[in-house]
Amino acid sequence: MSPAAESSTYAGGRWLLTHAHLRAVLIAALGILVALVFSRPDVLILVAPLALAAVWSAVARPAGSPRAVSRLARDRATEGEHNGIIVQAQGLQGADFAAASQAAAAWVQRRPHHGSQVHYVTEGSLRFTLGVDPLRWGNRSYGTTLVGAVGPWGAYSWGPVPLPGRQRKVAPTAEHFDTRAPAPHPRGLVGHHRSARPGQGSEFSAIRHFQWGDKLKNIHWPRSLRTGELHVTSSYADQDTHVALILDAQNDLGISEGLGGASSTLDRSVRAAAAIAEHFAHQGDRVSLQVISGAVPKRLNPGTGSRHYRRLLQMLADAVPAPEREISPEKIRLGLRAGTLVVIVSALVSEAMLSRAAALARSGLTVVAVDVLSGAEPQLQQADAYERLAWRLRMIEREHEIRRVGQAGVAVVPWRDPGTLDTVLRMLTRRGGAGVR
């Protein structure tokens, strides 16, 4: 059974008299009684159409046992992608038309915008597809779905019966990001980045004289025959980099309007982290993730490939803004070995986060802090003069704190989408050590 089928919901019921049919029966019966008692043929003529419609409706009563099943078209969705609630209604033999309606939900865009569809019944079953497109990452509720049907003349109806809504995790959309700069300190034997030293690999380095211990299969016979001395081909080792992503989810500044609208700092942080992780994971580097939050601090061990990237997106979708309660100094460098590239994605407004970055840099790691607040400060149109003054003072303090962190060896770069890390990674590679001043 597929995941979508496992998440389906079921609702049944039976055909019931409508108020319109009941009124028609009562008025027709009362009119016939008055006509017979008081000898009023005109009253009989007046109620004759109602009596005819009541009899016709009773004869054409729908015969099926109505039921409906609904499921999500995609259990795994990404913000901005099309998704839908698929409703399969059965047992509608004899019905005139059926309708389905999707309730409004936060951060979910309905298609059509009113969330309802009506179809004529030509067979005993109908299929509805109601669009529900998530607009923001996180745990999203898709709302309740109502489905119902009506028989001929509106005499009998089924529903509307509720199909309970679902809550699913929506992964963030990775912002467009690319870097042509090599990552410093490559480790391992599987990645995209080339080592700075010769070794066993697949990329050609040079042709040199034979040395004791060289493999015979590496002998370059054209050069050896031409010079009369044995020469071998050498190569660079194909190695990978451990990129440790640290997401600062302690604060969420600004207003979020979903994908395509205004973004808060946490929106930009999550999407930037997804973009950086996608770039390094898909080229073979090992990527780990640590979410810093007082609500749900989480850690994902290093890994690579598309499956690991999907797990990373699911963890990013769980980010909830909450201040960190305390920092354990002995756990700051947990699992980070020498040569690890640490990328901190943060608004850099938390003193605790800045202290963590400085501590990692002083311990000998290469630390890059991606500033998602620069150039995208929250809108202050609704703030009064005192609030704006307080914000300006805080920004001045923040600039001073960022300079101090830079002096400790942390490279701070603003998030600028493609090529954000190019310059700083080239500088780190040339220096061969932690820190960029």
From TrEMBL:
Domain of life: Bacteria
Keywords: Membrane, Transmembrane, Transmembrane helix
Membrane-traversing stretches: 20-38, 44-64
InterPro entries tied to this protein: DUF58
Region (Disordered): 178-200
UniProt entry tagged with the keyword Thylakoid: no
Designated name of the protein: DUF58 domain-containing protein
